[in-house]
Design goal:
The chain has 97 residues and is an alpha+beta fold. The chain has one domain. The protein has two helices and six strands; from the N terminus they run ββββαβαβ. The longest helix has 14 residues.
């Protein structure tokens, strides 16, 4: 659960790892109505990335893992630029090379 400006967002993620190396798995959005899952996906992801940037986190890699994304990348119809999250350029995220 993520809270932004005292508003609870329905956005779930998991972490694994230890020390300074860990992975974050941000769960996908799906369903609708009463069975909606992660309905605040984009706001939640933006809050998570902003908070990571605020503690000077360096992101080593981002992997989009979905059937349609894997198919599009394999077919050459999706590029890395298309995987960038809109409106995150001001978050101060550092990417390792």
């Amino acid at each position: 659960m993520i809270i932004e400006s005292a508003r609870e967002l329905v956005a779930n993620f998991e972490t694994e790892g230890q020390g300074g190396d860990f992975s974050i798995v941000f769960k996908s959005r799906g369903g609708s109505g009463d069975v909606a899952f992660n309905r605040d996906y984009m706001p939640g992801l933006k809050v998570l990335l902003s908070r990571l940037a605020s503690i000077d986190t360096v992101i080593k890699a981002v992997t989009l893992d979905s059937g349609p994304a894997r198919s599009a990348v394999a077919a050459g119809t999706m590029s890395a630029a298309q995987l960038r999250i809109p409106e995150t350029s001001g978050l101060g995220i550092r990417w390792s090379s």
